[in-house]
Known about the structure:
It contains 18 helices and no strands. By secondary structure, it is an all-alpha fold. It has one domain. α2 packs across α5, α6 runs parallel beside α17 (323-347) and α12 (243-257) packs across α13 (265-273). It is globular, with a radius of gyration of 22 Å. The N and C termini lie far apart (48 Å). Residues 357-367 have low confidence and may be disordered.
Amino acid sequence: MSREKxxxxxxxxxxxxxxxxxxxxxxxxxxxxxxxxxxxxxxVFPSLLPFFIVSELLVGFGIVRFAGVMLEPVMRPLxxxxxxxxxxxxxxxxxxxxxxxxxxxxLRKENQxxxxxxxxxxxxxxxxxxxxxxxAVSVGFFNxxxxxxxxxxxxYLSNLxxxxxxxxxxxxxxxxxxxxxxxxFPSLREAFEALHATRLENKxxxxxxxxxxxxxxxxxxxxxxxxxxxxxxxxxILDLSGVLGGAAEVLNILFVxxxxxxxxxxxxxxxxxxxxxxxxxxxxxDAPLIYxxxxxxxxxxxxxxxxxxxxxxxxxxxxxxFLPFFLARVLQxxxxxxxxxxxxxxxxxxxxxxxxxxxxxxxxxxADWGGIITEAGPxxxxxxxxLYTWLYWRRSAIYK
Length: 400
């Protein structure tokens, strides 16, 4: 039997097994689905949508091309990507997963990046946003606001390290492409001319551009919501079927060799599938805080198969390969875990942190922000879903 037939057989078998498991455990599947939907409804959608819409408008108006020309002397030597990558990196940090992949794919379609440059860029521009690390993880899951700085420092420093390491990806292609070329420091005039040329090439009216940005952003977020729900159910099914328990027993052997608490094996396995569930379980585990933080940092760096599936679906419409992104996630996971171990004393203990987690004071800023997002999130989501429905209906009526 050929390899393709084996792959078909394995995929079909997995899908039938998953379907049967959902039928056999309807209550648990419903609860997991509701949990995933709640995360998407109240946090993911309202936090990502503004960045997605603004990003598409910035690309359309040529502002990204302007930033690209100005940032070329920084991004090219450091990461071997065009200056536009600086904009993608900033937006990826500000908005979180998978904004970096969406913007990278967008720039690749605009031919502002080569395939190799896009593979480098997407590998380090997908990060957790600061609000998720400080509010959701440190306050919500660990009940420890002081832990946020440690997790954020480890996460973004490891992200930077991955970006520098990935500059060596595809070096032979660089030698052929840039042989004999000289890069000079750009002027503000050159940057403005690039912005103006891009604006003239895009002949869409402003209203059409705004409508397209809303439609495209909501469609992407609907796909992301589906992945979050699917992997939430999958994680729950694997737990009920004993697969996670068996894998945890095997992982215990490695944890014993590394002197890590066995209580963190299940949170780690859960985090391999879904980042929210993994970091939440790590915060609740009965283990020393330093080990909890190390595992949470690894999960944040690896980002979970759920986020990786979201990125894969976005990259599928381009010639950007997924494997370099996956390898970069593994590298960032281990780098972030090591940095958390090394920085635990200067970034946490020396700032007055205790070795055990504690409950934050009532009315703390991080807690207030987390509450505001949770309460306002569903209203924002519902409003834009209704707007999306209206725009989609209007566009369908026009083109009939």
